[in-house]
Amino acid sequence: MKKEPFVTKEQLDEIVKTYPTPFHLYDEKGIRENVKALKEAFSWNPGYKEYFAVKATPNPFLIDILKEYGCGCDCSSYTELMLSDAVGVRGEDIMFSSNDTPAEEYVLADRLGAIINLDDITHIEFLEETIGHIPETISCRYNPGGLFKISNDIMDNPGDSKYGMTTEQIEEAFRILKSKGAKEFGIHAFLASNTVTNDYYPMLAKVLFEQAVRLQKATGVHIKFINLSGGIGIPYTPDQEPNDIRVIGDGVRRVYEEVLVPAGMGDVAIYTELGRYMMAPYGCLVTTAIHEKHTHKEYIGVDACAVNLMRPAMYGAYHHISVMGKEDWPCDHQYDVTGSLCENNDKFAIDRMLPKIEMGDYLVIHDTGAHGFSMGYNYNGKLKSAEVLLKEDGTTQLIRRAETPADYFATFDCFEIGKKLLEY
Ligand SMILES: *Cc1c(COP(=O)(O)O)cnc(C)c1O
Fold first, then answer.
1. In this predicted model, what pLDDT tens digit does every residue of 207-218 receive, in sequence order?
2. Hey, CA dihedral for 252, 257, 263, 266, is it positive or negative?
3. Positive or negative torsion for Cα 107, 110, 114, 119
4. Could you tell which of 54, 55, 142, 228 is best to mutate to test the pocket of ligand 1, judged by most ligand atoms within 8 Å of the CB?
5. Distance CA 33, CA 6 (A)
6. What is the per-residue pLDDT for 153?
7. pTM
8. CA dist 73 to 63, 208, 239, Å?
9. How remote is the CA of residue 110 from the centroid of ligand 1, in Å?
10. Is 266 exposed, middle or buried (0-12, 13-18, 19+ CB in 10 A)?
11. Domains of the chain with bracketed CATH
């Protein structure tokens, strides 16, 4: 499928007058339509709730849009909890799905009334010692081990992942938690990431629903919810077929009716913790071509770098690139599109066929709305960009300003040299 940017060259000509490149741009209309479709797909389940994975796009303005549709927050750190609290998402609207959790994070999660999702059986004692009690509602993260396959395709390798409890441990954990006063239980698992197939959630649901029936029978606890977590992916490459959320929702419904309903568990709520699926296609990184270089290869240097988007450098991830205003030109030039870091992996594309690029052209790097800005860092002292919201009415709103050198040097403010750097 042809990948089209959600913004036009003409709109960008206007936007860059106020916000110089590079910046991340988000599509309010796309975000709203997508969350509506998700809710609709799971509307068969009265307790259904999406807890947006804050780490994907930790911006309060964007979380606030999702909140309008009843979304909660999936947090796994102190600052993510703070952010959730600040936008008014509190209590059981927070799912705290952390791992290797520091004590002070459990303290804040408990203070905010979050649902705590325990990553390990040893955390029961740690939590009880830390907060002085076991919450009435509690969740445990499950890891069945082995390989997670759909037909013969290996989706991911849970046996090699640090998360969750084994089958034996989760049963033991439920018994211990029940004996300590827990009343409502949840089960969570995240077994494959960025799945571009309608079969992942239904397959995962089957694993979790069967566990839920077994655990309810074995331990006598009441299972309130099953959390399918994240993992629904998006088509980063033009040849991939996008997921159909209605087919996914319906697939989960069928497994629910096949496994849970006959076991008398038709009151179980389905929760999700989607990140990528909620935001990735509705964000892009807008950057300008500033250098061309003809050596052993053809290079285009842009004003963004891996600090703004790490996935290509970190995972070799493909992000589609549109050269704005040349969407219909032939892709008859082969380029490496690079950033300015002193790291040879700072390339947004390698050997990519694109239209002929002139200096000053805007490049839109697609699908950066999740795990894009948020993975950013400050290597080479490069500063993080602004985030801008393209609103439904076509106007723009700044939703995070760009970093300045003063932000970068702020942690020297307690030293004499800090004064010099901050007054520069
Ligand atoms: C990262 C993460 C998610 C979101 O994953 P996506 O692939 O972005 O959907 C959900 N839950 C937990 C616990 C995570 O760590």
1. 999 999 999 999
2. positive
3. positive
4. 55
5. 13
6. 83
7. 0.97
8. 8, 21, 32
9. 21
10. exposed
11. 28-280 (3.20.20.10), 281-412 (2.40.37.10)
